[in-house]
Automatic annotation (TrEMBL):
This is RNA chaperone Hfq. Pfam families: Hfq. GO terms for biological process: regulation of DNA-templated transcription. It comes from Desulfurobacterium atlanticum. Residues 105-163 form the Sm domain. It comes from the Bacteria. GO terms for molecular function: RNA binding.
Amino acid sequence: MKRYKTLEELQLELIDFLEEHGEFRGTIHEFMKTLDVKQEVIIPLLNSLKASGDINYEVNGEEIIIRPASFATVPPVLTPQQEEEINKKLAEGYKIVASSLLGGVQSRTLRNLINKRILIFFRNGSKIEGRLKGFDRFVLRVNSYMGKMLVYKHSITTILYKS
């Protein structure tokens, strides 16, 4: 009996495909064969990834174009103190989740960091440390010693975590 893939498995598979190939162009049937899914799964899959800000897609009849979402890039604004602290944390074993220096898909990594401690550096030079509780396309929900807060992603330069 064939095992059916979960929506999350399909999301990760599509993100991996887009990271490797850049985009998908073809018919819906070709897309179904690429991910080995039924047609009724395609639109919920694409809508969930579009809502999370990971992809953009267009459907014209049978033709479909799927691309990673393009993020407006803002030049990095790290203070020398932030650069020094980030390099120190990286030497201690922390890893970068996201940075204005990096592009690409963040959602997969952020999903894995739910309920884990992260260190967030902001464009204005400040930082917070706390536990990631959730996120969407625009904000992170973080619990820190200052309490519960929503952090707008556009104000972040770098997010670090320790594995």
